Amino acid sequence: MDASSSEPETGNREPEKADSNEQPAAAEENVTESAAETEATEVAAPANPDQSDSYLRWSYVITRGIVAGLVWSFFAYVFDPMLHRGVIMGGQKAVGAKVEIEGFATEFFPPVIKASNVQIANKFKPTNNLLEFTHFEGHVDGAALLRRAYVIDRGRIDGLQFDTDRKESGQLDTSEPPPADETESPFKAKVEQFGKKWAADLLERAKLETDPRQFESVRLAESLKTEWEGDFDDLKERVDGIEDGADKIKDAIEDKSGNTLDRVQRYQKAAADAAKLLKEADTIRREVAGMPDRARVDLKDLEAARDRDLEKIKEKIDLLRTDPNQLSEFLMGPELYHRMTSTFDWVTWTHERIQELKNQPKPVRSRGEDIEFPHSKPLPKFLLRLLDIMGQGQVAGEPMQFAGTLTGVSSQPQIYADPTVLRLEGKGNGTAQVKATIDLRDEVPKNVVAVFYESDEPDAARLGDKKNLRIVVDSGNLKWRTNVETIGEELSGQIFLIREPVSMSVQLDPDTDPRVSSILQQVIGNINRVEAEVELAGTVKKPTWKLKSNLGPSIADGINGILKKTIDSKRIQLTSYINDHRDTNRRDLINLINTEYVDVVKKLNVNQDKLKNLIPKQLSDQPLDTLKQLFRR
Questions:
Q1: Is the Cβ–Cβ distance between 564 and 536 less than 8 Å?
Q2: Secondary structure string (H, E, C) spanning 73-94
């Protein structure tokens, strides 16, 4: 029982084991069947291409094509115009004047910005462009864009020109009117005023005329002679009046006509008239008595006038009473001012831009917070590492083709290692080198501009003022150097100019005395080198300058020497004339006084004696007693 029962159990277990062993084989068989079905399906699929695989393929292409088209359309039709307008607005905000960009385009692989026919107006001269160029191309750092920084690794500008004319005003509609240019007009007026005075002084010293009336002693002698003659004529007339009165009194006394009363009245009137005449005679005598003292004073004044005339002659042949430095400023000032005008324009423009950047208000913060992750090498928002420049312009009025580089232009100079540096080399009739450094890394900005120019080509300069005095300088070699530095508001610098060898000619107003031209031509004929130096100081807005040159002292010394040579003999002649004229005038005046004095006194004495003899003293002093005696008779 046990055996029989155990057998079936054993038999039952064996099939179970067999089933379990057969399961993997069945699974494999099922997989094989599924694969076969799939393969059969794939083989059968080409029979219905429009139902399954075709639908999935076109949806993929269409959706991605639409996205690509939108992206392309944005960058082709929206991105460039939007960036174009943004660059114009940003540029106008930076320079304070109109910015015009005719063509603008971008590329992405690699990132490149291109612009053409760009004009940037000058805020201070709206009718001129600060600069313009025909083409710009800049290669942008793509990695910097991911850090929200616009970095141009290398760029190039072609056709760059400075200070060109505009067809219309470059002033912004919202900007204030440009400030009036007051730098040149006061200087020009000062030069013209000095030129007129200097030319007039030179003519006055060059023309020692022989007209005796130019001397004070001659004019005074004539005046004194006329005055003394008039006084003596008056005295003679008064003395003659006394004589006529005495004759009338004599006739009245000798008149026996009429009765006794009539004769008494005539006597009484004669006595009164005689008293008046005697009183007038006493007055004249006192006046005549004071004449010798008056004559001595007049002769002393005449002597002093003679001494002043001699001193005047000496002054006319002495060195011109003109400051040589002032003469140098009159002659060299306009040329040097013209040469440093462009440098001052750039210094002023840079200073204004720095002040505007420092005074910009902080942007209004919107809600939220920007979290900046620190970087080992932070970048400014905008950076121009290197810009190659090709163009043309003028250096002190000299047209030139130039090439150079601009490096380190940054919107945040405090976090950039290097200052902004501009280097240019130009070639025309001469050569020029320009280097400008703008350092805004510290709290106080520092700018340095250095310009050097040299030319071996013949060059002509017109010095002075064409209305009064102009000297034309033809030179074979010209060198000038400018160094200008600003630290904050303070300005300093130097300008040096050398011309050699030189030949000069004089141009004067046609109405100017030809002797002045002759003297100047002799002087400048001995000058073969012109040097000038200007020291700059003050502030950017109110610069001051002091000019030194060999031209002013050379001309002043030369004129002095020529005047001494040309008029020395005339000086001796005039000195002798004044001394002789003084002696003659003095002698004539003394003779006049003595002769007329004696004549007046003599006639006065005669008339007084006549009056006294005509009217007895007792008759004139006691007329009533005389009447009583007459009645007793």
A1: no
A2: HHHHHHHHHHHHHHHHHHHHHH
pTM given for the model: 0.59
Quickly count: other Cβ atoms within 10 Å of residue 391's Cβ. Answer: 21
Residue whose structure tokens are 């001995």:
526
| 294: CB partners within 8 A, 6+ apart | none
Nearest to 396 by CA among 334, 443, 439, 456: 334
Quick one: residue 493, left, alpha or beta (phi over 0 = left, psi -120 to 50 = alpha)? left
Task: Characterize the bridge pairing of strands 469-487 and 543-549.
Answer: unpaired
The yes-or-no verdict on residue 132 having pLDDT over 80 is: yes
| 94: exposed, middle or buried (Cβ count in 10 Å: 0-12, 13-18, 19+) | middle
- For residue 168, give the nearest of 91, 89, 117, 98 by alpha carbon: 98
Q: For residue 97, give the DSSP letter.
A: S
Look at residue 604 and tell me whether its pLDDT is greater than 70.
yes
Q: Amino acid identity of 593?
A: I
Dihedral of CA atoms 256, 260, 266, 270 in degrees, nearest 10, equals 90
- Report pLDDT for 247: 76
| 499 contacts 530 by C-beta, under 8 angstroms | yes
Alpha-carbon gap, residue 434 to 343, rounded angstroms = 10
* Other CB atoms within 10 A of residue 594 CB: 12
Contact at 8 Å (CB) between 444 and 488?
Answer: yes
**Predicted local distance difference test score (pLDDT) of residue 45:** 46
The string of pLDDT tens digits covering residues 173-188 is: 765 665 555 444 444 5
Most confidently modeled range among 124-138, 277-291, 606-620:
124-138
The label of the residue with tokens 């291409």 reads 49
The angle subtended at Cα 414 by Cα 410 and Cα 419, nearest 5°, is 55
What is d(CA 327, CA 195) in angstroms, rounded to the nearest whole number? 9
Q: How confident is the model at residue 43 (pLDDT cuts 50, 70, 90)?
A: very low
Whether residue 338 is predicted with pLDDT greater than 90 in this model: the reply is no
Separation between Cα atoms, residue 216 and residue 214, nearest integer Å: 7
- 265 Rama sector, left if φ>0, alpha if ψ -120 to 50, beta otherwise: alpha
The chain-wide mean pLDDT, for the chain, equals 75
Q: In terms of pLDDT, which residue wins out, 260 or 105?
A: 105
Looking at the chain, the number of H-run helices and the number of E-run strands are 13, 14
The pLDDT assigned to 588 comes to: 74
pLDDT in tens, 106-115: 887 888 999 9
Give the burial class of 133: count Cβ atoms within 10 A of its Cβ; 0-12 exposed, 13-18 middle, 19 or more buried: buried
Integer Cα distance of 34 and 30 in angstroms: 6
Whether residue 350 is predicted with pLDDT greater than 80 in this model: the reply is no
Q: Hey, is 256 helix, strand or coil?
A: coil
Q: Where does 147-259 have alpha helices with state H?
A: 184-206, 216-254
The three-state secondary structure class of 614 is: helix
Q: Give the pLDDT of residue 162.
A: 84
